[in-house]
């Protein structure tokens, strides 16, 4: 039976990926510094390890044929704009140690989770942005801190493939969302934050929106995300690949969809002092559909309904509503 390591298995995407891989019949080892917060893991083995340390990366990759490497210090825009030093230090150390350990322990395939934050600021300065193609990454001007680190490690993945024959794969996620993700505390991303605010609001209340609400993004549901990662790992494609939806919407529209799901009339109060990231961002999925012969298909409305219902349930359990 193929043995697979998932790092970051205590986090949002890693937890869902473990469940998916178990359903496919693999033997799975999960590693993280924390256990999954909201549900038990399905992993055959779960090790609590700090992957900043090379000895822990060597232990994690021992006897593994494939690695899905997701562990990272990360969060939404409010977090990554205010923790740049911690992010670049911790993620560089984790990623380089993981690559080196995978090569040392003769892992065959290594998937790295990069981000749309590697794309240059100058291609994302209007809300009606042209969707980003993989080749748009250069000349580089990524998101400061988090984005530069991801872009550099994409290159390191290529070096390990070219010099050592480690088959590396790279996905650039575009705003993944769904149940079992962080929804409060400062690390949450916009869909989860908006679902929380709408769930806590009474009908006719106003909720705080970061920026003027005209900034645009695309959002991809977690089920599509894990399928896309899995399909890439079955392929022979070793360059970075977008993994996201290509439906562009404004934050205002996102709030309206969530309010409709909640059955509430919600007004918006704009806070222009809060970080909003790039002005517009969308994924060009031409290469994705060509390489994987597949595209994400879960609609935003369906994904948001599942996410909203789950977050509302958590808030009820916490007796906040
Ligand atoms: P997450 O924060 O839920 O999961 C990351 C996990 O890594 C956490 O459980 C954390 O405890 C773990 N981790 C951090 N430091 C560690 C260490 N020293 N040793 C071991 N584990 C450690 O985030 P996520 O949304 O599941 O993201 C997974 C990956 O995808 C990350 O690499 C992230 O940068 C990337 N990504 C995510 C998105 C998104 O929209 N969620 C977008 C772009 C890229």
From TrEMBL:
InterPro entries named in the record: Epimerase_deHydtase, NAD(P)-bd_dom_sf
All copies of domain NAD-dependent epimerase/dehydratase, residue ranges: 4-243
Residues annotated as signal peptide: none
UniProt keyword annotations, A-Z: NAD
Transmembrane segment boundaries: none
Top-level taxonomic group: Bacteria
Protein name: NAD-dependent dehydratase
């Amino acid at each position: 039976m193929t043995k697979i390591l998932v790092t970051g298995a205590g986090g949002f995407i890693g937890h869902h990926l473990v469940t998916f891989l178990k359903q496919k019949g693999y033997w799975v080892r999960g590693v993280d510094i924390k256990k999954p917060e909201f549900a038990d893991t399905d992993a055959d083995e779960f090790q609590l390890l700090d992957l900043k340390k090379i000895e822990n990366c060597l232990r994690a990759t021992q006897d593994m044929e494939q690695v899905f490497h997701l562990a990272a210090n990360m969060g939404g825009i409010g977090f990554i704009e205010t923790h740049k030093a911690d992010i670049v230090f911790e993620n560089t150390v984790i990623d380089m140690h993981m690559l080196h350990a995978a090569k040392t322990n003769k892992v065959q395939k290594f998937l790295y989770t990069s981000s749309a934050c590697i794309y240059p600021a100058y291609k994302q300065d209007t809300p009606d942005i042209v969707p980003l193609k993989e080749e748009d990454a250069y000349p580089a001007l990524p998101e400061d801190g988090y984005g530069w680190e991801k872009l550099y490690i994409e290159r390191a993945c290529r070096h390990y493939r070219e010099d050592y024959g480690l088959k590396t794969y790279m996905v650039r996620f575009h705003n993944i969302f769904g149940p079992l993700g962080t929804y409060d505390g400062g690390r949450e991303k916009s869909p989860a934050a908006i679902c929380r605010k709408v769930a806590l609001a009474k009908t006719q209340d106003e909720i705080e929106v970061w920026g003027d609400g005209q900034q645009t993004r695309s959002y991809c549901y977690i089920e599509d995300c894990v399928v896309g990662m899995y399909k890439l790992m079955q392929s022979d494609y070793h360059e970075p690949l977008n993994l996201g939806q290509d439906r562009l919407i404004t934050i205002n529209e996102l709030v309206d969809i969530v309010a409709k799901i909640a059955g509430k009339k919600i007004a918006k109060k704009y806070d222009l002092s809060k970080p909003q990231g790039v002005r517009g961002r969308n994924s060009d999925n031409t290469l994705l559909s060509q390489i994987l012969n597949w595209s994400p298909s879960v609609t935003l409305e369906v994904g948001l309904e599942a996410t909203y219902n789950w977050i509302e349930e958590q808030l009820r359990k916490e007796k906040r509503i």
